[in-house]
Design a protein that fits this description.
The complex is a heterodimer.
Chain A: H1 10-29, E1 33-34, E2 40-41, E3 54-57, E4 66-70, H2 75-83, E5 89-96, E6 108-117, H3 121-136, E7 142-145, H4 146-154, H5 163-173, E8 175-176, H6 183-195, E9 204-207, E10 209-210, E11 219-221, E12 227-229, E13 231-236, E14 239-246, H7 251-267, H8 277-286, E15 290-296, H9 297-305
Helix pairs in contact in A: 2-8, 5-6, 7-8
Chain B: E1 2-4, E2 13-16, E3 19-29, E4 37-44, E5 50-56, E6 60-62, E7 66-76, E8 81-84, E9 91-94, H1 96-99, E10 111-117, E11 120-125, E12 129-137, E13 150-155, E14 160-164, E15 172-176, E16 181-185
Classes of the chains: A alpha+beta, B mainly beta.
Chain lengths: 321, 186
């Protein structure tokens, strides 16, 4: 085999290691505890559009297989630690997502996830901004709501526009076959295919996502009286770099969202997987008020090194591993 | 043969809207919480239209039987341009629509690339440079190799290009077929 060599240069691997060290130093100075939760779990993430890799565990070589799942983020496990009184924590390690492979995607990648006690989404954006500016050496990061960015880039008023009109706007840019009534689907398409490429000029936090895209963020009423999610995403160079929430702490609402995800999965013909009920129990036990964020470390390194493809910053891609 | 979204790649030929199309700039798009798509810049091989199309991960698209073959240009019979595959001597006749702008640069016995769809020629691509004889131009101005200025010259294929003033009838010229510009004397 002639393809034994790493896809990243040794020079880039030195720079990668230096960024890892910067990140760990930042959290040590902030007195945030490093943790390393299990990557292999009996439960899977509920999000319909995040697909877990499944793994067959056998108690001994002849035993029948128990299906396990490689974690797509350490979120559930870290929240169980928070509920157990860990205080603010961070984790930097491998996570796995099935079906994700491309210039900015490798099915196995390094995620940095952290939780800050007593922070809301705004305080946490300040924290993300400090760390990202430290690594990338960039200036202050603009903040802009989801509704504002749609108005600015597409002249679309999300309070007024119908789903059919959203589909028309999308088709002016890119042709697609999609369920005409799937409003969040059209919003996601416009964000990922049209707006994101227009965010190259300056780094930006997009805040106040629609309540229907809250994932595990709290829902609040904004100044216009609209329900929005306390969720933000960070884009640098038009690349989605981090996703954060003022965390949902209500166990009943958590249970409802897990079940709603499971119902969407069923409607979409996606696999039904065991839900993490221990997360609901942890919230019932008392998740402290906190905000949390997940950041793609390989993408952060790509930005720092101005790499064109994720393969330039990781030792071996999935196809070489 | 049908391709699923994760098999799409640059250069793949597929059927869309009843026409063969080629894929350029294939990119995987997957927001953290959103659906996965494969975004492709498409080119319709019949009309030349270029547009963007994005495919859901569970979508599939029918392949098109399109292939590019190197062929020797033989002659024009007034209706069809005739080409031959050098090794097998198979011959193909292409109409003016398929040949398009390449007609200006087709010289007998030159090798060019013919795109076949279901074994019928739909496009002809000539090399980046071609050498053609000047059949008509104003008399050359001797020694005027350094001065600027240009004049039209008609080439053996009927194409008209701008050439420097010193070029004579009967000269063989090297032309860049992408820009249609004179490069040098051959």
């Amino acid at each position: 085999m002639s393809d034994w060599k790493p896809t990243a240069s040794v020079e880039n691997l030195h720079k990668r290691a230096a960024i890892f060290a910067d990140i760990r130093r930042y959290f040590a100075e902030q007195q945030v505890l490093e943790v390393d939760t299990a990557v292999l779990s009996q439960c899977a993430v509920s999000d319909p559009f995040i697909d877990s890799l499944d793994v067959a565990f056998r108690g001994h070589p002849d035993a029948s297989a128990e299906m396990c799942y490689l974690q797509t983020s350490p979120e559930y496990a870290m929240k169980r630690l928070l509920a157990a009184g860990s205080g603010s924590i961070y984790q930097m390690g491998k996570v796995f997502r099935n079906g994700e492979e491309g210039r900015y995607h490798n099915p196995e990648f390094t995620m940095l996830e952290w939780y800050r006690l007593g922070f809301d989404d705004k305080n946490l954006m300040d924290d993300v901004e400090r760390l990202v500016r430290l690594v990338l050496g960039i200036g202050p990061i603009r903040r802009c709501t989801y509704a504002e960015i749609f108005m600015e880039k597409l002249e679309v008023d999300l309070q007024e526009i119908s789903t059919a009109q959203l589909a028309d706007v999308m088709r002016q840019h890119v042709e697609v076959n999609m369920d005409p009534d799937d409003r969040d689907g059209w919003l996601n398409l416009l964000m990922s295919h049209v707006i994101e490429p227009l965010l190259k000029e300056e780094p930006v936090f997009i805040t106040d996502y629609p309540a229907s895209q809250s994932a595990l963020a709290r829902i609040k009423t904004n100044t216009d009286g609209q329900l929005t999610a306390s969720r933000f995403e960070l884009f640098v160079n038009g690349i989605e770099l981090a996703n954060g929430y003022h965390e949902l702490t209500d166990p009943t609402e958590q249970q409802h969202r897990l079940e709603a995800d499971q119902r969407s999965r069923k409607q979409l013909g996606l696999p039904q997987r065991p839900l993490e009920q221990r997360l609901v129990s942890a919230l019932a036990g008392g998740l402290p008020d906190c905000a949390g964020v997940a950041l793609g470390v390989d993408r952060l390194i790509m930005l720092a090194l101005q790499a064109e493809h994720i393969e330039e910053v990781i030792p071996f891609t999935f196809r070489n591993a | 043969m049908a391709y699923s979204a994760n098999q799409l790649k640059n250069g793949l030929k597929v059927m869309l809207e009843g026409d063969p199309c080629t894929m350029q700039d294939v990119e995987f798009v997957k927001p953290g919480k959103g659906q996965a798509f494969t975004r492709v810049k498409m080119r319709n091989l019949m009309t030349g239209r270029v547009w963007e199309r994005t495919f859901k991960s569970n979508e599939s698209v029918e392949g098109a039987d399109v292939m590019d073959r190197d062929m020797e240009y033989l002659y024009f019979d007034g209706e069809l341009y005739h080409f031959m595959v050098p090794v097998t001597f198979e011959q193909y006749g292409a109409d003016a629509t398929a040949v398009g702008d390449a007609a200006k640069w087709l010289k007998e016995n030159d090798v060019c690339m013919v795109t076949l769809w279901n074994d019928n020629p739909i496009a002809v691509t000539v090399g980046n440079f071609v050498e053609l004889e000047v059949t008509e131009t104003d008399p050359g101005i001797k020694g005027d190799t350094a001065q600027g200025g240009s004049k039209p010259a008609t080439l053996a294929t009927g194409a008209v290009v701008k050439v420097p003033l010193f070029i004579e009838q009967g000269d063989i010229l090297k032309i860049d077929t992408r820009s249609g510009e004179y490069v040098s004397r051959a």
